[in-house]
Amino acid sequence: MTFSHDALIFAPADVDLAQSPLAGKVDAETYVLGAFNPGMTRLPNGNLLLMVRVAEALRTPMAEQHINALRWFDGGYCLDAWPLDFVDTSDPRKFMMRGGGWRVMALTSLSWLLPVELNPDGTRIEAVHYDKAVTPRASYQCYGVEDARISKVGDRYFMTTCSVSPERHSTTLYTSDTALDWTLEGIVLDHQNKDMLIFEGLIDGKYWAQTRPLGDLYFAYPPGSEWRAGPSINLASSPDALHWKPYDKPGIRPHAATMATARMGGGAPPIATPEGWLTLWHGVEPSGVVGVYRTYWSLLDQDDPSVVLRTSHDPLIEANPALTDPIKELMYIDNVVFTTGIVDAGDHYVIASGEADLACRITHIPKSAFA
């Protein structure tokens, strides 16, 4: 597909680490591993806001046969040293502990959220609000705050994030009247439930959300089923956006006819259209350490979002190496695009994605693409 606009808008070099919340609080040099996966919404002034995930990493994590991890603790930041003999460092984003009866990992970076204000069509940076950064504030966020998704319901903004800690891998909720000043409401979904996306509107007076519970065990569909067992996009509803009940019917599931969406999860918060709820989601094709991430779309029934009215088995957005070629020396993974925001712009949508877990990408897609 040919896009009228498709470019990187914010990259690691655009982050001023002198204004980082970690500046002067860590006795080690850090750098920006990635500035990516931005939640997006339209501000009251008409501009767009990106809540950019800044993954700030140690410049030299390994020393004296140890690898160090960054961790928030009691209002400050500290380093944890792990013996190299006990860890697997094959994935540059994390390291895995060897042995034990289950997977245990730590991160090579700590993530915080940076508000970046763009012009109304997302093609120019207007301001970077370091004073409004969202940072860890509780023990359940000690390894960072990741992957914001922003929904506007009525006059209120709701932002879900993934909070990472040894306690749990949970979904936390922030609320705001301005989209710049956020109040932490706490944990709303418990352990390893990622990619929570709140619908931008109520259904029968209730808030609705897409969720994506993770696990190490899935039960098989019957032989010949059109579905593949594995991570899928589920649904939940709530009277207040704080207390969520899972929906009895399944949502979007991996299709058995293709491996391109063998693993899937939510992308941008579902938005209302005259025909139903438009949802963008990611499918992952198994390949190498990380896999190939692509963006797909589905149109859901306006009254029962478990009903898929139509969808496309061809990807809407794929990774674009031409965009990252000017900063290719910073690349540590490829074949990854992770869409995290969508805003109506008249005859087209402005779509925000993370490109290669490295930078923020803005794409303009005509509404005709979803016909």
UniProtKB/TrEMBL annotation:
Q: Which Pfam families match?
A: Glyco_hydro_130
The record's listing under InterPro entries reads: Glyco_hydro_beta-prop_sf, Mannoside_phosphorylase
Q: Which GO terms describe its molecular function?
A: hydrolase activity, acting on glycosyl bonds
Keyword set, alphabetical order = Glycosidase, Glycosyltransferase, Hydrolase, Transferase
What family does this chain come from, according to its entry? Belongs to the glycosyl hydrolase 130 family.
The entry's protein name is: Glycosidase
Question: What organism is listed for this UniProt entry?
Answer: Sphingomonas echinoides
